[in-house]
């Protein structure tokens, strides 16, 4: 199965699992502050939650809104990930 054929739900779930594993590592092994690690956990796992919520949207506008929130969370996750890389 090619990368293109994997659903957004599956990809975001896999990503969330990776974020949780990274959070555990940051908590145990890294000198990254707890606040930064927690922000990474919250934003990284929120992406999939919002994509999942979009599937039950009550309107097209609600659907779009949920995916826009997921995009914002993805950008925030990227920001926090870069911060953890530099710490």
Automatic annotation (TrEMBL):
It comes from Moorena producens 3L. InterPro entries: 23S_rRNA-intervening_sequence (IPR012657), 23S_rRNA_IVS_sf (IPR036583). This is Four helix bundle protein.
């Amino acid at each position: 199965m090619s990368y293109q054929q994997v659903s957004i739900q599956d990809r975001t779930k896999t990503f969330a699992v990776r974020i949780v594993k990274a959070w555990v590592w940051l908590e145990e092994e890294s000198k990254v502050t707890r606040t930064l690690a927690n922000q990474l956990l919250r934003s990284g796992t929120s992406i999939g939650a919002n994509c999942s919520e979009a599937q039950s949207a009550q309107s097209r506008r609600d659907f779009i809104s949920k995916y826009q929130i997921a995009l914002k969370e993805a950008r925030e996750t990227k920001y926090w990930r870069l911060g953890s890389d530099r710490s």
